[in-house]
Amino acid sequence: MERDDSKAVRRAGEAVNQVVMSGASAKASPSDMRPIARVRRACAALVGFADPDVAWLTDLIERYQAEAGSLTLDDALGLSRRGGAGPWWVVEARERRDAAVRELHASFFASLDRPAAAKVILQLSRRRRESRAPASGGRDALMDAVLRSSERFPTTEKGIQAILGNPVAD
């Protein structure tokens, strides 16, 4: 039986909003409006939700508070840089770009091996960068989306081959 995450998330959000908004009343003291006080109230509102993600988050917030001064919020949440990978938002942008490049290969150039596909994809990227014409769909639209991404597109065949040869494991 599949659990309905959207209902649980909506209920949790409503509970958090109710608690946070109740703390924003005119009678609230300045210390009640500090961000950490709001975080505490939000976590208290989530107690009782039988969702593993809610339990994970509230446990991490408790750990963060218990180790204040020696633990950053990024460290508590597991968002810190590891091994030179860059910030989480850069890593995710790169993963989205790479997935789109692999989709371009699979959808439009599947008959080509990696080196040949990399060459064609690089040529397509150069052509789309220089083109002022809107993409008519298909591979041009997908390449335009890749080029608009926040992550820089490789400028060499070798860089594209590296993307094509490194599928992300689920």
What would a concise description of this structure say?
This protein is 64% helix and 0% strand.
Written description of the protein model:
The protein has 170 residues and is mainly alpha-helical. It folds into two domains: 5-77, no CATH class; 88-164, no CATH class. Helices cover 64% and strands 0% of the residues. It contains eight helices and no strands. The two termini are 22 Å apart. The mean pLDDT is 80.
Can you tag this structure with a few keywords?
single chain; 170 residues; mainly alpha; 2 domains; 8 helices; 64% helix
Proportion of residues in β-strands: under 5%
SSE class: mainly alpha
- Helicity range: 55-70%
Integer average pLDDT? 80
Overall shape: it is elongated
Question: What's the helix-strand series?
Answer: HHHHHHHH
Strand count: 0
